[in-house]
Amino acid sequence: MRIKVVLALLKKEFLNIIRDRKSFITMILLPLLMFPILIGIMSLMITMFSHVDDTIKFGVNYEVSDEFKDFVDNYSDIYKFEIVYEDNETLKEMFDEEELGIYILKEDNEYLIHYDANNTSSIANSSIVQDIYEDYKQEYVANVLENQGVNYQEILDSFKITFVQESITEMGSLVPSMISMVLTMMISSVCFSVAIEITTSEKEKGTLETLLSLPIKKSELITSKYLTVFTLSALSGFLTYISLFGTLFFAKDTLAMLGVVSLDISGKVLAIYFVSIILLALLFSGLLLSITIFSKNLKEAQNTLYPLELLVAFISMLPMFGITGSMKSALIPFANIALLFNNALSTNVDGLFVFLTFASTIVYSVVLIFIVSKIYNQEDVLFSTNSLKYLSFKKGKISRDCLSPLASLVVGIIIYLLATYFTLLFATSSLYFLLAIMPITILFVSIFVCLLSQINIKKSIKFNGFSVKRFICLIFLFLGTYIISNTITNIIVSMFPSTLEQFSQVSDMLNVDNLWLGILLIAILPAIAEEFFFRGIVLTSFKKKYGAVIAIIASALIFGIYHMNWVQGINAFIVGLALGYIYVKTGSIYPTIIIHFINNAYGVLCEFYPSLAFEPSGHVLYILLIVSLIVVIATLYISETKFIDKKTS
Amino acid sequence: MIEVKNVKKRFIKNVGKKAEEIYAVNDISFNVPDGTIYGVLGQNGAGKTTLLRMMSGIMSPTEGSIKVDDRSYKKHAELIKKDISYLSGNTKLYENITPTELLYIFGNIYEIDKEKLEKRIKEIIKLLNMESFKDNKIGNLSTGQIQRTNIARCFINDPKYYILDEATSGLDVVSSQIIIDFIKEEKKHGKTIIYSTHYMEEAENICDEVLFINHGKVICESTPEKIKKETKTTNLRDAFFEVVGGNYEN
Questions:
Q1: Which superfamily is assigned to A50-155 in CATH?
Q2: In the list A271, A464, A602, B121, which could disulfide-bond A588, CB 3.0-4.6 Å?
Q3: Side-chain half-sphere CA neighbours of A196 within 13 A
Q4: How confident is the model at residue A349 (pLDDT cuts 50, 70, 90)?
């Protein structure tokens, strides 16, 4: 890589973007003005709603007692009151002509405070008047009770309720979550516009062709593009940063009204924000560069990025849902930084959380840079010459059989991240939704990927030489592995009891009230979705490149990791080996779907009918283990010889 | 000399509802001798652009080889590209940059020394009469001015070869004349120009040799005079139809 060339390219990108008036506004002006305007509007709204007149004037339709007058006089150093005595109709008239903001009608022993809901000062004043009446009522009650010889104060103080704040709250909760949202959105929107400008619009104008005809290495081109997006989005992020902390510093009074108790922005908070902004820019740059290059023109790019923008907005709002973040969420891209922004300002942040967030973001960015470099080496992408429609189910000559192993791994990571997001969001609130959304996500993502990359899915989802005899044989094989996996899991649990705790949390979570709903959500949907992805896509992709054995092991490993805990993970790994073998032997996902279904359905049934559960112990366990090993090996042998021969002949 | 040998370029296209492989360039071989104006002629979609893109190293062939002065793109891409300037009629330029800045940036990419570059830019601006608009943004220039800027950026590295892809299409008489004059002038300096167009008259006037291609294949390679003689026609336009026969799409 030649630095001089990269610098020349950078100069070109910067000049072209910064001279554009529109991008100047979005990149420089908007970030600087964002927070002052935002906080200004909020404070304006609050002062409007809390506007109290110097003299609060209200009308009454009854004779006010001297005690009340004296009582009201006690407040004279804070509020001044002017009381107007009139009959009902005159009061209403005066109210309608806005001479009075509030009037009070006494009906029997009830005082009705009438106020104008459209008038902010009437609202504010009425609440003060209400407070006065409440206080007066309390004093009145105290007097009555004391006259009867009861010590009112003593009864009142019989017990006390006080809130104790556990977390060290520096600010009100709304403000940090809002800040985290605006900051994330700001950086992302600049990144969006710059990435479109330097990739898609270069393609649309045809200048990319000129660039490629110059003696530039691909690495130099990618470096300059990446640095442009990164620098500009980091710059606008930094401007937002200055505007944010400047506003926080100069608008203390306003913030106090917003519920911010005390503002103490330490050097640590400043540092965390600064590093987070840089990392966010790093991550966004890689992500967007790898997406925008696929679009032929600006319109297409905007259409592609629109869902992503919504997703970013949604993720940046996570702190608003009251999610504070665990160690696991520190590994979720974007969400971890949104949470960090929020946590750094509102509560003490854990050093490990910060470290995990930063480290994982760097790892994701590096992976994305790698992906970008791969994509920019593809002519198809650079010239959009591959005009295949994405939604083509038709069997074309060229349609590929499978993804590359790397691509299927990336899809796996995407699914894993989505699953973690959903668990984070819905695990406590809506379990059924979570259970339904997970397999649907897997199906959706994998079908989408197949369509996008023109994979011929028909090949992997058709019936291939499927016979009853063979199926029975495979059932035996599966039963064997089922017992083996169960036994091994039991051994692991007895060796590491902590793993069980993890598992029981999950299994408690999976407690479904209705049997049929359980069968649908835990057995049918996951069986279809997971087989489609783990066997149909992942295994096939590895098989083509590395052969069947490695493919079975790799897919089982990924299947295990997907389950997110040790007990289920190891269980899934062993079951995954059997399912992988069955898939390789039959070349179809239907048998594996059926077996996967039986496996999961059995688990659900055991929940409802505990007598069905099969829990061998002691000698029985070892005997079973040996027997099933023999069964497995025997079935493997039979299926290897007989069926293969039959098939080939 | 540029040698094109058995070059194929495959694309995947949707034909009706089926995906099909299409060879935009299907087994083409020819040599471009130094110091000539070499015309690549054919109707739209014949594969001219793809061929020229491969010759200038923008795309790589699916099969076959392209050698420039006995060097291949696989090993010496940057070295070859320094000797070639590519200009396409569809290419726009960066709108917010001035012609002078553009020339500096391109000069830096070609790794030309600072002093030499400054001298060369001054020369080019004088030569192409760009003094009046050299510091305006390209977005505010007229089509003719943009065309001159485009030629200027092709000049900057003083290349041995020019590859011009339909550089005159869509231009008015004056603007396209700028290009034609430029081609003739450069030939006098001993440069080689590979030039594609679908304007037969234009090609007839300036080309030393022409290559007719149709459906990604070479149908004829010769000098304009020989072709006219062989086909017993008086101009290249008629000769083209004669050579293609009935085998063209309308």
A1: Periplasmic binding protein-like II (3.40.190.10)
A2: A464
A3: 16
A4: confident
A-chain residues near B58 (CB < 8 A): 209, 212-213
- Sheet containing B63-68: which strands, arranged edge to edge? B18-32, B2-15, B63-68, B71-72
In three-state form (DSSP H/G/I as H, E/B as E, the rest C), the secondary structure along B23-47 is: EEEEEEEEEECCCCEEEEECCCCCC
pLDDT exceeds 50 at position A392: no
Instruction: Identify the band that residue B28 occupies on the pLDDT scale cut at 50, 70 and 90.
Output: very high
Residue A615 is predicted with a pLDDT of 66
pLDDT, one tens digit per residue, over A154-167 is 887 888 887 665 54
**Record: contact B17-A394, CB cut-off 8 A:** yes
Q: Do the Cβ atoms of A215 and B137 come within 8 Å?
A: no
Nearest chain A residue (CA) to B14: A388
Structure tokens at A322: 């009251």
Tell me what percent of the residues of chain A surpass a pLDDT of 90: 10
CA distance B163 to chain A (A): 10
Min Cα separation A34/chain B (Å): 27
- pLDDT at A225 > cutoff 50: yes
Adjacent-strand bridge partners of B18: B15
Nearest CA in chain B to A8: B105
CATH topology (fold) of B1-83+160-250: Rossmann fold (3.40.50)
Listed by start position, the domains of chain B span 1-83+160-250, 91-158
The alpha carbon of residue A122 and the mean position of all alpha carbons in its chain are separated, in whole angstroms, by 42
Tokens 């990924």 belong to A558
Mean pLDDT of A531-552: 86
- Quick one: DSSP state of residue A640? I
Comparing CA positions, the residue from A258, A294, A349, A291 lying closest to residue A39 is A258
Mean pLDDT, to the nearest integer, of A359-380?
88
Q: Do the Cβ atoms of A206 and B90 come within 8 Å? A: yes
Question: Which of A207, A387, A396 is facing B92, going by the closest CB pair?
Answer: A207
Q: Check B19 against A217: CB less than 8 A apart.
A: no
CA distance B91 to chain A (A): 5
Q: Do A388 and B91 touch (CB under 8 A)?
A: no
pLDDT band at A646 (very low <50, low <70, confident <90, very high): very low
Interfacial A residues in 350-379 facing B (CB < 8 Å): 379
Question: How do beta strands B2-15 and B18-32 pair?
Answer: antiparallel
ipTM rounded to 2 decimals? 0.91
Instruction: Calculate mean pLDDT across residues A493-502.
Output: 73
Residues A397, B21: C-beta atoms closer than 8 Å: yes
Read off the pLDDT of residues A251-294 as tens digits, 9 standing for 90 and up: 776 666 665 555 567 788 888 899 999 999 999 999 999 888 88
Closest alpha carbon to B243 in B230, B49, B32, B234: B230
Please state the pTM of the whole predicted model.
0.69
**Closest partner residue to B57 among A210, A213, A454, by Cβ?**
A213
Q: Return the higher-pLDDT residue of B34 and A64.
A: B34
CA distance B151 to A284: 37
Collect all residues of chain A within an 8 Å Cβ-Cβ radius of residue B90. Answer: 206
| Token code pair at residue A442 | 């897997």
Q: How confident is the model at residue A51 (pLDDT cuts 50, 70, 90)?
A: low
Domain boundaries, chain A: 3-44+172-384, 50-155, 424-648
Query: How many angstroms separate the CA atoms of A621 and A627, rounded?
Result: 10
- Give the nearest partner residue to A397 out of B19, B58, B109, using CB atoms: B19
Of A2, A5, A194, A210, which to mutate for an interface test with B (greatest number of B Cβ within 10 Å)? A210
How many angstroms separate the CA of residue A530 from the nearest CA in chain B? Answer: 29
Helices (H) and strands (E) in chain A — how many of each?
Answer: 30, 4
Cα–Cα distance for residue pair A78/B137, rounded to 1 Å: 65
Nearest CA distance, A210 vs chain B (angstrom): 7
